[in-house]
Amino acid sequence: MDLSVMFFGADDASTVGHATKYDDILAITRAADRLGFTAVWTPERHFQQVGQVFPNPALLSAALAVATERIHVRAGSLVLPLHHPLRVAEDWAVVDNLSRGRAGISVATGWHSKDFVLAPDAFEDRRERALRDIGLLRRLWAGETVEFTDGTGERVAVASQPRPYSAALPLWTTTSGSPQTWEAAGRLRTNILGATIGQTREDLAGKIRLYRDAYAQAPEQAGAPSRGIVTLMAHTYVGVTDEEARRRAGGPLKEYLKSYVAQTATNKAPAKTGGESAGRAAGGAAGRAAGDAAGALTGGQLDTLAEFAFQRYLSWGSLLGSAETCRKSLADLADLGCDEVACFVDFGLGAEEVLAGLERLAELREDL
């Protein structure tokens, strides 16, 4: 099993400055590179406290690419309906060249209505746009000439430049839990980026089987691997003991969950649309438990909800505990059919605590 590092911070950077947050991200990524982690994932978020330093994963990934030597740099996730596919191909070709072939993207449909001030016409059919444009993105990456409408209304044929370093772009589809998205990812032969949180082990096992069956039955896709990668996000802090890990992680994680629930109250997207992103997956049980009533919750109710979610995280699906506890959790995820765990580390812990936890986690890699 591969281990990666995922960022999706919720803390208010105004107290220390956003420049310091970027320094922390660089330091943690360099450490992950040195320690042998597979990849670093950075999200796309707009106009919220949650993920406030991550408006453009391509821009940040370019910086991480030149600051590292071997670790893969990936968008987890890129909200494809907010972008023209040509621009995505151009931007990530730059990252791919700077990293000498270490770029990758997880495509998300988007879920928060406020994000779509950047592309208001793309909101209603965002799921269809995202799934449709995956094929187009593959064609552009491969160097095909594709017709688009130019500034005069004429159809013109263009090819994306610069040419990428890699022949194929590794693609994931992000899901917050919808079985339809797991199946769609299999049909498209993309990898899949999900989360342990917010679903039972049995539910997740069923979705992985659904994905594997759909992938096996799907026709070959240009640039797609013969077998898809199942990557699962998990809140991570490896402590010296279970008690120490939970004591250090408990307060920051519960504050993170409350911040996440608060942003759901400002989302005008109807729940039935099923838009998905790394944010929803990372928020997990707390966000879904709050639902449409998030805006009406009192402070005490938010505390109760966050405590409930935290206790659920401890019972299954997180990497919060001692090395031995986390070793057992990783073995369980491997048995479930998980190929890679994206370790979600920046939920409020200090950079030094994150780095210490990664050092202990890296020691477990030899057993995987």
UniProtKB/TrEMBL annotation:
Gene3D superfamilies in alphabetical order: Luciferase-like domain
SUPFAM superfamilies, per database record: Bacterial luciferase-like (SSF51679)
Pfam families the record matches: Bac_luciferase (PF00296)
Species, as recorded: Nonomuraea rosea
Official protein name in the record: LLM class flavin-dependent oxidoreductase
Sequence ranges assigned to domain Luciferase-like in this UniProt record: 5-339
Domain of life: Bacteria
